[in-house]
Description:
The chain is mainly alpha-helical. It has 23 helices and no strands.
Amino acid sequence: MKKIFFLIQLLLCSALTGAETVSDSLRAAAEQGDSNAQYKLGNEYFYGTESRKVNYELAAYWYRKAAVGGSGAAQLNYGICLEHGFGVDRDPKNASLFYLFAANKGIPEAEYNLALLYLYGSQNDSKLPREKAVAPDRSQAEQHLKNLVEKEFAPAMVELSAVMLNKENVTEQDRKDAVALLLRAEKLPGVTGKGLRFLADCYYGGIGGLTKDPAKTVALLKRAIEKKDLDSVTKLAFFYEHGEGVEKQDKQKAFELYKEAALKGQAYAQYKYAEFICEDYEKGKGFEYAMEFYERSMAQECPQALHRVALFALKGLGLEKPDPVQAVTLLERAALVGYPASQYSLGCMYAEGDGIPQDDLRSFLWFAEAAKRGHAAAMRKLAICYAKGQGCTKDHEKAVLWLNYAAQAGDYLAIQMLEKNRTNPL
């Protein structure tokens, strides 16, 4: 939804500036076929005015009239109505045509919407009839984004950089090209908060040839917040919480930022706000209030919140007694989105039969998933599985290999086991 309103406002706020006062003359002109009047009337119904209440159906009706009359701006806005179901049945396929019409009139926002529609598609919506859906088409998406990059359209630079960074087999050159796009976008007036946040991440991680710079990261996040980027509020809270890139650690400031983002619906911030409530930062609020925010975060599939509440269930916190079955259910939700701590915990539970049936195969598979994501203790457990043949075929070489990985990752027990392995092989 953020993208929708950003794009509408990007084009429409300028259209509404200086718009004439609502009067019957505007409607009369619209009814007589004046496409500019139809477009303005659509705007007034979409946003509402003192004299006209918000009415998406009428907004879509007048946008369509103006779009058929050749208004590029109305073609864009009617496309948005079609894609997202504002006042009309959702029809992304038809929306793509109106975006294309508007793009051909030189409206970059329309080509950007078209690019995103091709990039992500709309087929995952089970309620959408197949004939109205748009299949992902990465080639077309990238071509439209590249067209916009040539026109110095900052949001397209940001999206294309994300495409480069998220490639399955991303190369160092991909990272450098992505960072170059973000640096170009940063200098443009149309740079988005998302773009500044992406660049901040690159400075923090030293990605694409950039030198790691926590202070620069913080400065970029603050600029992103000025552009109403909610995720940047949460990221900035992290830096105050841990004292990176700021003058000094300030957990109270971190708490305030997490709370701000949590109340606005940011999933990870809701989890962190709940954690701070449990640490008594919210005076007069207790565990039940914290659980409200854990649950809000879990509803958005935040893996950290799912993991934490799973641990509560294991201990019986807030319950009549421990509930390992509920714990496994929550851990699996987090594990399936790739959260290694939950994958490791599942491995342990299945290995030990902790309130659930013992299962060596499932234990091995979850340890393997967590190990692949760099979880040091899971690497050690995976080594033990290979050494003993638990859930897998015995393999001494793989056991030693994963034990070495665990030691290199800093697992103290793995280091001790390697020392013992020299005189007493696994």
